Amino acid sequence: MSGSDREAVPPVPLEEAVLRGVLAGTPAGIGILGPDLRYRYVNPALAAMNGVPAAAHIGRTITELLPDLDDPGETVLRQVLADGRPRELTSSGHTRAASGLERRYWHGAYHRLQAADGTVIGIVGIVLEVSASHQEQRDLERARERLSLLDRAATAIGTTLEMDTTCSELADFLVPLLADVATVEVLPPERPHGAAVRPPPHGILRLRRAGMAALPNLREQVRIFGVPGTYVDYQPQSSIPRCLASGRPILENLPTDDELGGMAPSSERVAAYRAVGIHSALVVPLAARGHPVGTVTLVRAGDSPAFTDEDVVAAQDLATRAAISLDNARRYTREHGIALELQRALLSEPGSPYPDVEVAFRYQPAGSSALVGGDWYDTVRLPLGRTLLAMGDVMGHGVEASVDMSQYRSMLRFVASADLPPHRILRRLDTLISETESGRPATCLLALIDPTRGRCSYASAGHLPPAILRADGATEIIALPVGPPLGTGHGGYELLSRPYTPGHVLLMYTDGLVERRGEDIDVSLARLAALRLPTDGDIGLLVDKVLALLVTEEAEDDVAVLAARITR
Q1: Do 382 and 323 touch, CB atoms closer than 8 A?
Q2: Cis (ω within 30 of 0) for the bond into 265?
Q3: DSSP, res 159
Q4: Do residues 558 and 364 make contact, with C-beta atoms less than 8 angstroms apart?
Q5: In this structure, what are the phi and psi dihedrals at residue 224, rounded to the nearest 5 degrees?
Q6: Which residues contact residue 415 at a Cβ distance below 8 angstroms, ignoring those fewer than 6 apart?
Q7: b/e string for 330-348 if b means 16 or more Cβ within 10 A?
């Protein structure tokens, strides 16, 4: 067709009959509502969708016409009328049309209609039904339930980096949600701490029970099978070794006695299982980053139904989520142990003071929620019967802080050999550390005890003040001039000398002894000053008493304490 031929074709007029033909032929439901949200027009598709004749729509609102909708969306429609911005809306429920579906779903787009002069004359809505089949709806509902379950698990499991706590949280979450009894077994560490554990017999798998939960009426009965912290041996053909070997769930519903004996750790357990009423078990592997961590066992007893395929899927989802938290906890525990062993190795025994000064010291690592810190202490013999005491804290945590701690301690011994007063030792240390490329700032408190003169000289680089436990039982916090931490290069350290006589105990410590999260430091020091302790007797027992009185909960930071007393 030429250009002149196209120009000769007259445009098709959009008359009302043509528009009605288009509206009547589309499968989409189309309706027009006035500013009062009452129907003005519906096409045949919308009338069939609603199960109401088109004429019966006119003059009625959606709520009046379809009372079984969960939400007719009239609030959204009023917003469209108000600002003219098109909106989409998904609704669900039932109309008056016959349907075998448990629930129907519709998705609609709504636009404001305006006259040529801008007057708002109503809304046009275009609606499509998006209902799924019965099976699809059930699948969607299951998927929704699984997501909800995982969301709840995310807040309940893995709240700490402590492995046994995470295992207990997993077991508690599973009971009674999916099981009457749940146990979590983990592969034991290659070098278990604590009491020595004899290796298992050849061919036997030994796991450590790290978590266990049961319905109230079953708790005492199932304790005979092993409580958290105990080791359990499994015969090769039992469920847990097979689960770990295959990496797949093992489902044992309503087994016979012979089958139950094969899945149990040992065949001797059958009678005890039957006495408790156990009839079904599900074992799910715990694996993270391609490595096995352990297993979780779900048990049902009494009148509880056997496990379903949906239970298996839910248990796998939870095990996958929990295994990541368990692996993180295991990695943290291993790294924390390495750092702690390194720090203890670096924090060797302090030097021996002169016989007329006795000392005691304690180091207590923080709880499992914190990394190993850089707390340290030392004693250095100086000429003329004097003893230098040091207490320090390298800023930060982890292996790096422990390494810096050892380096600073060596620096202190080197500088102290020049027999300088405490404030000049700090000044020299500050210069050396500030010139070290990777040196971390550190606080430090020095105390030079001179038994011959009955005096003690102090200097502080940003450290907490020492305390004197007097012979009358009172505790005094010594107010020292405090300079900046070591490593800043600013210097500015001052010396304070005070009498120091037999019967008094000097107490030096790091912040983990007194500080509490969210508490003012003056309140923390007041708690120390309120101690009333006898200063005679074994000085080591005295330090233990101070720790017992002040560290009443799991410490948030490492605690180092050094006590000194003139004996003559």
Answers
A1: no
A2: no
A3: S
A4: yes
A5: -65, -15
A6: 425, 428, 429, 432
A7: bebbeebeebbebbeebbe
Sign of the torsion formed by the C-alpha atoms of 470, 476, 479 and 480? positive
Q: How far is CA 372 from the centre of its chain?
A: 19
Judge whether 365 and 372 are in contact, CB under 8 Å: yes
* CA–CA separation, 385 and 332 (whole Å): 46
Question: Cα–chain-centroid distance for residue 60?
Answer: 54
Pairing of strands 455-461, 39-42: unpaired
Arithmetic mean of pLDDT over the chain: 86
Residue 142 has pLDDT above 90, yes or no: no
The encoded tokens of residue 205 equal 């798998």
Residue type, 185: E
pLDDT value at residue 198: 65
Q: Is the pTM of this model over 0.70?
A: no
In 237-318, DSSP assigns E strands to 250-253, 278-288, 291-301
| CB-count burial class (<10 Å; 0-12, 13-18, 19+) for 76 | middle
How many angstroms separate the Cα of 483 from the Cα of each of 220, 388, 437, 455, 460? 60, 19, 22, 22, 6
